[in-house]
## 1
Amino acid sequence: MDRIEKLKSFLETSPKDNFLRHALALEYIKTGEVKSARVLFENILTESPDYIGSYYHLAKLLESLQETELAIEWYEKGMIAAKVAKDNHAYNELQAAYEDLVY
């Protein structure tokens, strides 16, 4: 059983597990299934805006799709969420990616 199938199987018993959904989205990116990855990241962040790690990956995915304005929005949302969570590492990572894109 490949990773995607394993993660899907785990999600059958824990469909709202953000760690599993995030991991599945990353696997989708590896296999080129970017639409599926995007949906998962967007669902995670809509349902759990405090799941900081997904902001960076969603914004990077949007960058790769040349959806620059939307990527900027997600970086900004992620920086706000990271500040609220007092997650300086995530904030700095999001800020660096944001600045690379904007400046």
Note: The mean pLDDT is 97.
## 2
Amino acid sequence: MKATQKKFHITKVLGFYMSVLEHEWIIILDAKSAHDIEQMCIHVGISTTSTVKIVPINDMQKVMAKLKST
């Protein structure tokens, strides 16, 4: 996966967890877009053995600041 990060605009891997029994991977990434994450999962083969669920999240402090500014 590290070898393909740059190709799919993944800035860095912030966390990597795995439930082997459930075939579930939880990977926290800093990425340009959810589509890039999807394409990387397909390319490296994660999606062939596991379910891929991409959940875009934001830093709570940034969200609160944006809400206060509107």
Note: The first helix runs from residue 34 to 44.
## 3
Amino acid sequence: MGARKKISADKRKEALKTQYFAKLNNVPTSPRKMRLVADMVRGMEAFKALGVLKFSNKEAAARVEKLLRSAIANWEQKNERKAESGELYISKIYVDGAAMLKRLRPVPRGRGYRRIRKRSNHVTLFVDTISKTEKQN
């Protein structure tokens, strides 16, 4: 790695130390379905989002709920105190496409006719304190 790349990589790592996030890789759900759930809770207060996700009938909501609990636990671990209601909110959440399993649907006479693409995704969720953003504004 060159010196310029190493410097920018170190800056990125230092910036991540001040942010509180959780990442979920290779979720076997299509990114489109996961984005519906992500859009539902983006910008919402963390404990309110947990309630919304718990009672959502989407399959992806259970995975995002577990991820949000993990992000809250990461915040509590770094700050060495418990999160209070109304203190944390979901600052960023994004869903990226991951590896795709490609299959062929067999048809008569030994041919493969239709391609089946089993999609998966990566979800990254950032939480932040509300008071921190009020001070910046």
Note: The chain has one domain: 21-130.
## 4
Amino acid sequence: MDGFYLLAHPPIIVPEIGNGEERNIEATTNSFDIIAKEIKAKAPNTIILITPHGPMFNDAIAITYEDSLKGDFGRFGAPQVSMEIAINKKLSQEIYKLATKDNIPVVMSTKELLNQYNVHITLDHGAMVPLYFINRFYKDYSLVHITYAPLGDFELYKFGMSIKNAVDKLKEKAIIIASGDLSHRLKEDGPYGYNPLGEKFDNEFLQHLEKANLTEVFTMSRECIENAGECGRRSVLIMLGTMDEIDFKGYLLSYEKTFGVGYGIMKFEATNKCKTKLNTIIDSINNKNKNQANPYVRLARESLTTYLENKKIMDKLPPYISEEMKKLKRGVFVSLKKNGKLRGCIGTIFPVTSCVAQEIIRNSVEAGIYDPRFLPVEISELNDIEFSVDVLTEAESATKDELNPKEYGVIVRSNGKTGLLLPDLEGVDTVEEQLSIALRKAGINPLENYSIERFKVIRHREE
């Protein structure tokens, strides 16, 4: 591989679209020109580009497999700006072959396949914006067009390793571009409003990349990632996989947030060859997970890990368990999230074991193995799963007016039927929504008489 780049893709930076607004992100424009001239000097035969905005599958990375891809900026008011680029089908096929061999979910994205989903195959703006600037200086290349999927971090990284191996096998002269914007939540008037974790994500992510701190990239706060509203992290994880056996330095050419979205332009330069970094990253993450400061989530992870490794429930409490966890009896919910999506959740409204610690041990296995909505968790998934533990306070009788879905969970009861909903759930913003879901879960008709109780939860998350 001859070059590695993180490039933003704001359509407004294209003059025919921006109509003068692009001058507000001039540093980004200048950085694009620098990168484009550098690519011209490298004269690659192929540009491998990873985008968030091509036709995306939830369960497989998509590699375009057509003779060429064409597109224009019509949806942004500039249909006259168009391009058509030949696809390097041989390299695309080799990447697919090696990724499949490594059990990475991947599909060849063709017209026939996408027609089944009523989707047209076209060049997306995540690809066209970077290529617009490159094409002003250099056009003698073919394209490998990849749309990432919301897979686990390590699957994406390993896919990058497959890309690198395919390039080496075919002796291609290629560069790789990770197309992606950073947080979309940097200003109140931005596309998704403001969230303070957006700026935190951008700062930390770029710093880790500059310093080549890969473990820190993988162990960034999931809460921070989810609230940043970004689309570039997964592109970068794939690109980092292509650099698995080289040491490198990152150089940030520019970062702007004028329009409430983080636009980062970076290049990465290899310093020397090294052994694979993947095992070191995995070991570091395992050590971090095993030494979580919070004993509640640490126990939840250890319980499910022990079960998956030994096919039996933990029979001894670890020494880090607090006295409160040994003595207190409460209902407990254990939730598992993978890539920001629920992977399992099982809990008890009232305690069914001797203490909170035993409740966590029991419910973490239940959530991972026996949640009927999901397939059982496999041990290979654990590094991509975030654990949280909710300890319920004692419930108290309440009226509808005393509920607040952000602060209180709710329990509804009628004729032996019971429904529970935890507080502060995404998409549950009103008391009416909260009660409706709880009643539906219990199978209680909203028109019949039912009692209401409220409770709080003490939520424990992995750091």
Note: The chain has three domains: 3-282, 292-391, 393-463.
